[in-house]
């Protein structure tokens, strides 16, 4: 299933996403963890 | 990186013309040949050019560079603070601007991952294009990362087929690097391949690679990464209807998330557990897990909104319209909070579809589903959702005795079924 790429700017990326998952862009209810393991919650740029 | 390319890189960075750098050392045309690797200049000339650019060509700082690079490389793979990653990057860049290091290429290749983590996809694409011309000369280690990070780039674009092609090439290269790669690198690649197989619905392969990664992470006591693997295993076992195994894996992920007090991981697992119970028809358990997620303020609004969409459907399915109403209202509040509407458009459609149904604004319901929601889902080939919302619309038409319209949307649902079977 193709997914859209939400036009994420750096700012948008910082305010979206489980730290361990990619931002949801479709209605698939299985949520894989991200391949980019990064603690976004601690960042305030 | 060849010395000529390095000199060119530094000269353009310092905004010097060919003439300014060549003056008194070599002719402009000769410098151009050096920069384009069309000739091999003598060590004396290279030294003079590097001196003018303020670059050291001895390896006095090589050990320091190596140490700093290794620290920075590991930051790109573990949970870390972005500010720290940026700071370390700038520090290394500054040192490498004045040193010709044997590790320069590896640094340049890792910049792809760095830009992706920062969400700067255009910069990552630019870096990939920049390095393409040099990639024929990469050694096996450089190729390992080159393919892996190009895979990461496709992952960021949600193009999982191309991502997988790249990861497989990276895996092939890892076979030649038995002694050069740490176990954690192998684990990360296995994990990444597991996630990608899961995205591509290659369930058995996802299980195989998640288990490979898990074995290593367990040995390394890396519990957060173990929890990520358990989530992949949970998803995979649910898909092949081995529910007990799926629940066992999710519970392990929850346990590890709680041990590390990692809210994001806990709620990711709750979302997955909620969906598992939903597919089993156990709405009470599904609602319990979804509800855990939606009121957790440590989770970003767009994430909570995704779970709210699942919860709205769950309550509506069991005909609990009062709770559906409450959750729809909460979803509308979350939408208000999210400034980037594009990032949550699909959830907006879900919330307002049910909102119009509950408020009996049927004209608006029909218009939204027909003109916006279904075309959006079809455009993105989300056939599973096309089935759900075509049927919802068809049911509505049937209730109000518009059988021709009802038949049209039942047919659309059928067509979507066929697409899924073909997939």
Uncertain segments of chain B of ≥5 residues (pLDDT<50)? none
CA-based shape of chain B: elongated
The largest sheet of chain A is: none
CATH topology of the domain at 79-172 in chain B: Serine Threonine Protein Phosphatase 5, Tetratricopeptide repeat
Distance, first to last CA of chain A:
34 Å
CATH architecture of the domain at 79-172 in chain B: Alpha Horseshoe
- Quickly give the structural class of chain B: mainly alpha
Approximate strand percentage of chain A: under 5%
Domain unit count of chain A: 1
Low-confidence stretches of chain A: 1-18, 39-45
The ordered H/E elements of chain B are HHHHHHHHHHHHHHHHHHHHHH
**Helical proportion of chain B?**
over 70%
Overall pLDDT of chain B, averaged? 91
Major β-sheet of chain B, in short? Answer: none
What value does the Rg of chain B take, in angstroms? 27 Å
The tally of helices of chain A reads 1
What is the string of SSEs of chain A from the N terminus onward?
Answer: H
Tally of DSSP β-strands of chain A: 0
Structural commentary:
- The complex is a heterodimer of chains A (45) and B (423).
- By secondary structure, chain A is low in regular secondary structure.
- In chain A, 11% of the residues lie in helices and 0% in strands.
- Chain A contains 1 helix and no strands.
- Chain A has one helix at 10-14.
- Chain A is elongated.
- Residues 1-18 and 39-45 of chain A have low confidence and may be disordered.
- Chain B is mostly helical and 423 residues long.
- Among the domains of chain B are: 1-55, lambda repressor-like DNA-binding domains (434 Repressor (Amino-terminal Domain), Orthogonal Bundle), CATH 1.10.260.40; 79-172, Tetratricopeptide repeat domain (Serine Threonine Protein Phosphatase 5, Tetratricopeptide repeat), CATH 1.25.40.10; 360-423.
- The mean pLDDT of chain B is 91.
- At the A-B interface, helix 1 of A face helix 9, helix 11, helix 13, helix 15 and helix 17 of B.
